[in-house]
């Protein structure tokens, strides 16, 4: 059975990874000259949105891997 603390830790790390990845994707897009907030949906706007979406997924995946590594190390101790 999972405890409330474990569920809270999972939620917070997922959210942090998701948000961090989104910000990283947005930053990379801005460095490439892509702005997701331009009027209309031109190719640069869509590409920027895709980068933000990829960043969200990759950030969440990375956060889960890091959390898994830390929880595995704590169980071995």
SSE topology sketch:
Layout: H1 4-31, H2 43-76
Helix pairs in contact: 1-2
Please give a structural write-up.
- The chain has 77 residues and is mostly helical.
- The protein has one domain (10-71).
- It is 81% helix and 0% strand.
- It contains two helices and no strands.
- The protein has helices at residues 4-31, 43-76.
- Helix 1 runs antiparallel to helix 2 (43-76).
- The two termini are 20 Å apart.
- The mean pLDDT is 90.
- The chain crosses the membrane at residues 7-28, 40-58.
- Keywords: Membrane, Transmembrane, Transmembrane helix.
Q: How many alpha or pi helices?
A: 2
Query: What is the count of structural domains?
Result: 1
Instruction: Give me the count of strands.
Output: 0
Order of helices and strands: HH
